[in-house]
Amino acid sequence: MKHTKHALIVAGGKGTRIKSEVPKQFIELNGKPILLHTIQAFLNYSLSLSIVLVLPEEDITLWHAIVKKFNVDHPIILQKGGATRFQSVKNGLDKIEGEGLVAIHDGVRPLVSADLIGASFRLAAVHGSAVAAVRLKESIRMTEQDNTKAVDRSQFRIIQTPQTFDLQLIKKAYQLKEDPSLTDDASVAEKSGHKISLFEGSYENIKITTSEDLIVAEALLNANRK
Predict the structure, then answer these.
(1) How far apart are CA 67 and CA 75, in angstroms?
(2) Total structural domains within the chain
(3) pTM, rounded to two decimals
């Protein structure tokens, strides 16, 4: 069965931890805004992909200027975000109609590969969900007030995006009442009663949050071009 595929890119960062005057999704990386690298990654997977971009209302004028400056000609469906990521994703989902699959992705993960995106769609078509995750590289400890305790890192995963779902499944899940425990789309789907299927992500699929991440992202971009 062929599924209609959508990408929902959420870009609501402010750049406070990166100490930037512009929102971090618009910081230039190798001469192009981070957000454009992210969008291009999805277009590298498929030019027929429907892309919904969720931005804070105050950033929409800046986005239009970027579209003009960098000659963005692929149709992008724009949606205003909400006060939280939960609200922004819900708003974005409201722009998508019918049946199909949707890959929900952070706007500041510009190094996601076409293979990773493709894997997420293939697995979500079978299981209803497909969430990128990687194994921990370092030892971890759990803190309890003044005490700490070693835990088995093999039982834990670092969760990334894309988090890809059957469209109707995730739209129904986002009808839940928002609460602080719902930190990503997988937690929303899980609380709604759905089993979450993980698949192997990539250590290169970093989320740009700090100035150090920018340095790493630039190095990875240059390395992948060789």
Answers:
(1) 10
(2) 1
(3) 0.95
Residue pLDDT, tens place only, 124-182: 999 999 999 999 999 999 998 889 999 999 999 999 999 999 999 999 999 999 999 99
Percent of the chain residues past pLDDT 90, beyond the cut: 88
Contacts of 158 (CB under 8 A, 6+ apart): 133, 134, 135, 136, 201
* Cα–Cα distance for residue pair 196/182, rounded to 1 Å: 14
Question: For residue 180, what is the domain's CATH number?
Answer: 3.90.550.10
Residue 220 contacts residue 214 (beta carbons within 8 Å): no
CB 17 within 8 A of CB 210: yes
- Which pair of structure tokens corresponds to residue 119? 């894997």
> Which region holds residue 63: left if phi is over 0, alpha if psi is between -120 and 50, else beta?
alpha
Contact (Cβ atoms closer than 8 angstroms) between residue 61 and residue 152: no
Cα separation values, 168 from 19, 46, 194, 195, 214, Å: 38, 22, 12, 15, 36
Q: In angstroms, rounded to a whole number, what is the distance separating the alpha carbons of residues 154 and 136? A: 7
